[in-house]
Specification:
With 248 residues, the protein is an alpha/beta fold. It has one domain (3-236): Spore Coat Polysaccharide Biosynthesis Protein SpsA, Chain A (Alpha-Beta Complex). Helix content is 38%, strand content 17%. The chain is built from 9 helices and 7 strands; from the N terminus they run H-E-H-E-H-E-H-E-H-E-H-E-H-H-E-H. The chain has helices at 3-6, 26-37, 57-67, 82-92, 112-121, 138-155, 172-175, 187-193, 221-237, and strands at residues 11-19, 43-51, 71-76, 97-100, 126-130, 167-170, 198-202. A 7-stranded mixed sheet has the order 3-2-1-4-6-5-7, with helices on both faces. Helix 6 (138-155) packs parallel to helix 9. It is globular.
Length: 248
C-alpha cells in the first residue's frame, strides 16, 4: 500500500519530537516548525511527546495548543526514555510521511521540507540527517566521532550520524519495527534490515541555548556499546527469504 493511501484524515506529514524538561525551548520549537511546514501544500501535524517532564512542560504545551491547532500532545505518565517517547509519537502519528527531531532546538525544523522533497523525488524511504558541522562542546564531538566509528565497525555500516534526531521517512519504514531502549539511535540500520533504502544528507546544527543536555559522555558509552552488540546480533539473525505460492 502506498504512502499516499496510508494517510489518516488527509495528514501528509507528522513531525514527532520527544521532550523531557524542555519547557524553555518548546515555544520557539513549535513556532519554527509551524513556519517551516506552512508552505507545504499538504496537511501536516506536530506531535510533542512529554516524557515525564518536571519543569512545567505540560502547562506550556497546553497554552501552545490554543495557538497552534495542528499541535498534538502526548504525555507519558512516567519518564520512559527517548526511544519510548519516539515510539509513542510514531504509533500515534497520522501522516503518510513521518519526521523526527529533538526538542532542544539543536535540530533546525527548516530542514524538514528539504528532506521530505527527497522522498518525493528520489527512490529512498528514509532520509537521515547528518550533523556535518556540529555545534557541541569539543568533548562531545570527540566522543561522538568515536561512537559513530565503533557503531559502524560493529554493524558494518557507513552512516556518518545514525544518532541524529532529524529524520524523515515513509510510514512503512516503522510499521513492522519493534523498538527497544536505545534503538532510536540505530533507526537507519533497523530500517535497512527491513529492505528499505536509506540516504544521508547534511543538515544544520545549532548550539543549545536553553535547558540541559540529557546525555553526557560517560552516561551513554557503555549503553551504546551494549546496544551496538544487540543490533549486530539482530543483523546476523534477520529473516531473509523469498516465497512464491504455486498456482493450481
Amino acid at each position: 500500500m502506498s504512502s499516499e493511501r496510508r494517510s489518516d484524515e488527509g495528514v501528509h506529514l507528522s513531525v514527532v519530537a520527544p521532550a523531557h524538561n524542555e519547557a524553555d525551548n518548546l515555544p520557539r520549537l513549535i513556532e519554527e516548525t509551524a513556519a517551516a511546514l506552512a508552505p507545504l501544500e499538504q496537511n501536516w501535524e506536530i506531535i510533542i511527546v512529554n516524557d515525564g517532564s518536571t519543569d512545567g512542560t505540560l502547562p506550556v504545551l497546553r497554552e501552545l495548543m490554543k495557538k497552534y491547532p495542528r499541535l498534538r500532545v502526548l504525555s507519558l505518565q512516567h519518564r520512559a526514555g527517548q526511544t519510548a517517547a519516539v515510539d509513542a509519537g510514531l504509533r500515534h502519528a497520522r501522516g503518510a510521511f513521518l519526521a523526527t527531531l529533538d526538542a532542544d532546538l539543536q535540530n533546525d525544523p527548516a530542514d524538514i521540507p528539504r528532506l521530505l522533497e527527497v522522498l518525493h523525488s528520489q527512490p529512498y524511504d528514509l532520509v537521515n540527517g547528518w550533523r556535518a558541522n556540529r555545534r557541541d562542546p569539543w568533548l562531545r564531538l570527540v566522543s561522538t566521532r568515536i561512537a559513530n566509528g565503533t557503531r559502524n565497525w560493529l554493524t558494518h555500516e557507513q552512516i556518518h550520524d545514525s544518532a541524529c534526531g532529524l529524520k524523515v521517512f515513509r510510514r512503512e519504514c516503522v510499521d513492522r519495527l519493534k523498538l527497544f531502549n536505545g534503538m532510536h539511535r540505530f533507526l537507519p540500520t533497523l530500517v535497512k534490515m527491513e529492505g528499505f533504502r536509506v540516504v544521508e544528507l547534511p543538515v544544520n546544527h545549532r548550539p543549545r541555548i536553553a535547558g540541559k543536555a540529557k546525555y553526557g559522555v560517560f552516561n551513554r558509552v557503555f549503553k551504546a556499546l551494549r546496544d551496538c552488540l544487540a543490533v549486530r546480533w539482530m543483523q546476523r539473525r534477520v529473516l531473509r527469504y523469498e516465497c512464491q505460492e504455486l498456482e493450481s
